[in-house]
Design goal:
- The chain contains 16 helices and 8 strands.
- Helices cover about 55% and strands about 10% of the residues.
- α8 links the parallel β4 and β5.
- The chain has one domain: Aldolase class I (TIM Barrel, Alpha-Beta Barrel).
- The protein is of the alpha/beta class and about 350 residues long.
- The chain starts with a helix and ends with a helix.
Length: about 350
Amino acid sequence: MSPLNTLTAKGQSVWFDSISRDMLEDGTIARYASELSVTGLTSNPTIFQKAIAGTEKYDAAIHGGHERGLSAEQIFFELGLEDVVAAADLFRPVYDATGGGDGFASIEVSPALANDSAQTIHDAKELFARADRPNVLIKVPGTEEGCVAIEELIAAGVPINVTLLFSPDHYIACAEAYLRGIERRVEAGQDPLVPSVASLFVSRWDNHTASELPEGLANRLGIAVSEQTYRAYREILTSDRWQRLAAAGAKPQRLLWASTGTKDPALPDTLYVTALAADQTVNTLPEKTLLAFADHGAVEGVLGDDASEADRVVLGAGEAGVDVDAMAIKLQTEGRDLFVESWNDLLRGIEAKAR
């Protein structure tokens, strides 16, 4: 089997962390689905900013939206939804074949709403209704306010991709919100099948801490935190609370590895794919990492419930001066701010094209 086939045989879904009208129209994404085992797709403001700035294929629609009096944000959501819906249609056979377990495409609410639960709830509902596809996930940041929105949205039947998680604590908070939302649906006699994934960002840990850690700990913290989070995920899946919901027809909120491209050229370019093979998870890969793993990747094992080595790495990082809990908060805040920056660049780019 190819490396990607081997990965999926271990129970992990491979998603593509990119989108553009060029790749949709020239068949690139369809080819990755048919040849590289890709079964879903994620996007974010940075991806869309680069996509729209890098081609003229959006220009006519931007000019048309401007002539209709739409704001740059309104124009973007028309363009973004059109692309994401096209991707969702491409992956719809996977969604149908897996009973709603895979085959998704994601679009994000404005990252400027990360601390505004009420507006996040409103905008996420509106986006999902406009998409009119059961396999479109609405991305909501896993901030404290975001978790409030996640519970309400899951209870309302809106599929969610929780983004910007950086620690087991972040993951558990959003998983609890998901469980509460599903429990409310069960109590109300509603369908408990509301898809969701929880996205843990991996490589940013090492980008921020490698220079602060001694040899033997440098570039190991991202994987260690991921292993600890996987243990927490497995504990939820084996809990009586989850088993009751599963018996009622719910599907797990799968753990998703995000930010899995290797930034340091001294590290293996497939590091975070090889290390994080795990059952009932998703790994969303940027194009460079996807092609690298298809070419020379290897699956050396899969994660289990034992994260004792990860605990030792995290403890060692603390002893070396990295406050892991404080760093998780910092990374989430910085991640939010970076997406807001990309969002503003995206809107400025649309305004410039409109002019």
